[in-house]
Each structure stands twice: as structure tokens, then as C-alpha cells.
Amino acid sequence: MAAADIAVRLRGLTRSFGAVTAVHPIDLDIPRGDFLAILGPSGCGKTTLLRMMGGFIEPSGGCIEVNDADITHLGPEHRPINMVFQGYGLFPHMNARQNVGYGLRLKRIERAAIAKRVSEAMALVRLEGYEDHMPAQLSGGQQQRVALARALVMEPQVLLLDEPLAALDLKLRQAMQEELRRIHRAIGGTFVFVTHDQGEALALANRIAVMKDGRIEQLGAPEDIYLRPQTHFVASFIGEANLLKGRRSGGMIETACGLTLADTGPDGEIALVVRPESLRRLAPAERAEIEAGGRVEEIVFLGAHVRYVLALSSGERLRVQDPVEQPRAALGDVMRVGWSRAAQRIIAA
Ligand SMILES: Nc1ncnc2c1ncn2[C@@H]1O[C@H](COP(=O)(O)OP(=O)(O)O)[C@@H](O)[C@H]1O
Ligand SMILES: [Mg+2]
Predict the structure, then answer these.
(1) Is the minimum distance from the CB of 42 to ligand 1 under 6 angstroms?
(2) Residue 194 CA: which ligand 1 atom is closest?
(3) For residue 85, how far is its CA from the centre of ligand 2 (angstroms)?
(4) pLDDT the model gives residue 1
(5) Which ligand is nearest to the CA of 86?
(6) Which ligand is nearest to the CA of 57?
(7) Is any ligand 1 atom within 6 A of the Cβ of residue 20?
(8) What is the pLDDT of residues 271-295, one digit of tens each?
(9) Domains of the chain
(10) Is 58 in the pocket of ligand 1 (CB under 6 A)?
(11) What pLDDT shows up at residue 209?
(12) 17 lines ligand 1 (CB under 6 A)
């Protein structure tokens, strides 16, 4: 990709705290206009990575470029970057308008210009009419919007968001996800969004970086990450996945549960990954490219689907998602399921 299309470039960016390496050296290019989600479990280094980008934590090594300029050692206020913190970090003694205008006042921008930009930012997050409210008089979702407006009003080229929706309840979180998508479309900047919630990452981002133990395990479009996980961790962290253990030798795979299939690749331990929604219940004479069978051990009604857990001969479990209108199987029944080769991934175990 041409250098001009890259908003943020990280090279060997790393940070240790004493003996703990929170972020191992990371190389990452973030294209301009991206909505990138950094997704990973608690403690994997997401906040540390984001705070280094924002200028709030000094890296132990490596560099950060924005628009081809090295900003590694610039203070946060000198970066074309703004950050919305985990929790909201509003000033409790300032009303919404004063909170949002704070950064502009520091920059000694003229009063009339501040008033105009603050109104625009409040409108963007749909908080008109709440200008005089103190943070304590606002709901969690409204405080979140004030925090967002406070960052957006600075017109950053890059907006960093650290789990901004984590404190909201489900309905509000979904509404704010839509708001964030709308705001990103409206202002067209580069957003980097940290979350431990895979559903949120899939819903929001056009690219996802999956992090584990201070490293990026996989980077790609949501579809790539979901349909073509490259590691065990990514397969099990994003969505639900069945993992069947096996071995590849001389271009043939044999799984512990008794499947045999041709597959080119190096000899060694593998896992066959297939999503519950890719499995189809087979009628007695029906065939599929890949077939497996087991005893129904658990049945969960999920509304639109019924989830069956099958116990395989290997002792492994296979989760199957079946449309609710299908005749219901019973506990202890033998169920045959099938899937297509295109629906499965083979990964190194
Ligand atoms: N200021 C600090 N001092 C010591 N250890 C820290 C500090 N900040 C983070 N860590 C450690 O670095 C690792 C990554 O933390 P963090 O970046 O907050 O992860 P995440 O945001 O993904 O939950 C954790 O092991 C955490 O305990
Ligand atoms: Mg964090």
C-alpha cells in the first residue's frame, strides 16, 4: 500500500513493566479511514498498546509514525491523535459543554469558534440540550457521548477508543455501536477501537487485529478472521468453533473421531475447525462431503436455533446449530451431521 494511504505505522513497538512484557514488538500499518478493532482477552496488552499510540505510555522500544512523521516521543497534546479512555474520565466539576470544550480552551482557540465546534460535536453525538448538565446528572450512555464529543471536537486524524462501550448495558451498547459507525462514516477519520468483545469487533470494524499475550495473532477483515482463523486461539476466541484433533501424514488426515480425508500440508498434529452453523443434520440416507455422528448429550433452545451437543466416539464434543423448525431430536439419540469441505479449516494444532 502506498505510504500516503497509511495513517499510523507501528514498527517494533514494545513495552515492558519490570519483568512483564505487556506488548511484544508489534509491526502494524493502519490505513487511513480504517475502523480497526484490537480484540483480545483481558490482560493481553490492548490498553498498553493504545496508550503508547496516544502518548500516555512511553514505549520500551520501537516507533510510531502518523502520516509518515515520527511521533514516538511527542506528548499527547502534540499528536494528531485523541483518545477516549476506559471509564469516561470526565471532569466532574465541569458541565457537558465545559468538558467538551476543555481541549480547545487549552489551545487558546477563540471563544466563538469554541462555542461553534462544541455545538457541532454535541450534535454529532446527539446530545443537544444537555450542554448544561453535570456528569453526575447524565446517564452512563450520555456520559459516554460527552467523552466521545470531547475527543471528536479536537478533530483528530486518529481516534483511539479503549473499551468505550464496556460499561453500558446490552441495548445501549448496540445503539452506541450504530452511533459509532455513523460518526465514523460522517467524519471519515481513522478509528482504533479496543475491545474484549468479539461480537462488538465483528459489528464495528472493517479490520480486526486479534491479540494474545502481547502479540497480534491474526490481522484481517472480520470475514477473514471468522471464516479463516489461522490459529487455535483465533478460532475459539471469535465465534463458536468445533475443534477436532487429528494428525496429517503423507497428505492424509485422520482425526481422533474417525474421519479420514485427503489434505496437502506438512505432517504433524492438526485441528479441524468447523462452526456449529456450518453443520447440517443428515436424514438417514442423506450424504455430505464430510460426515460425523454422535449421541445427543445436550439440547439448548436458543430462539431461532436449537443447539445440540453431540458426544463423539473420541470423547470430543460437536456443537450443532439446527433451525428451530426442524423436528426435535431427544437426549441420547444418535445424530448424523455433515458439512462441506469449504466450511472447514485445517490448522496446525
Ligand atoms: N502500569 C503497569 N505496571 C505494571 N504492569 C502493568 C501496567 N499496566 C499494564 N500492566 C500489565 O501489562 C499487561 C497488559 O495490560 P493491559 O495493557 O492493561 O491489558 P488489556 O488492556 O488487554 O486488559 C498485564 O499483564 C498488566 O498487568
Ligand atoms: Mg484494557
Answers:
(1) yes
(2) 21
(3) 9
(4) 57
(5) 2
(6) 1
(7) yes
(8) 999 999 999 999 989 999 999 999 9
(9) 3-234 (3.40.50.300), 240-348 (2.40.50.140)
(10) no
(11) 98
(12) yes
Residue 44 Cα: closest atom of ligand 1: 22
Mean pLDDT of 199-209: 94
Mean pLDDT across the stretch 107-117?
93
Angle between helices 96-106 and 140-152 (to 10 degrees): 20
**41 in contact with ligand 1, CB cutoff 6 A:** no
Within 13 Å, how many C-alpha atoms sit on residue 38's CB side? Answer: 31
Cα–Cα distance, 81 to 75 (Å, whole number): 10
Cβ atoms < 10 Å from Cβ of 316: 17
Complete DSSP assignment for 290-310:
EEEEEEEEEEEE-SSEEEEEE
pLDDT at 175: 84
Task: Tell me: pLDDT of 88 over 60.
Answer: yes
pLDDT band at 2 (very low <50, low <70, confident <90, very high): low
45 lines ligand 1 (CB under 6 A): yes
Count, residues in the chain = 349
Separation of alpha carbons 180 and 147, rounded Å: 13
- Is the pLDDT confidence value at 4 over 70? no
Residue type, 247: R
Specify the amino acid at residue 3. A
* pLDDT, average across residues 27-41: 97
Q: How far is CA 258 from CA 47, 168, 293, 312, in A?
A: 44, 46, 10, 9
Q: Is residue 167 over pLDDT 80? A: no
DSSP secondary structure string, 142-183? HHHHHHHHHHHTT--SEEEEESTTTTS-HHHHHHHHHHHHHH
Are 316 and 256 spatial neighbours (Cβ–Cβ below 8 Å)? yes
Q: What is the pLDDT of residue 317?
A: 96
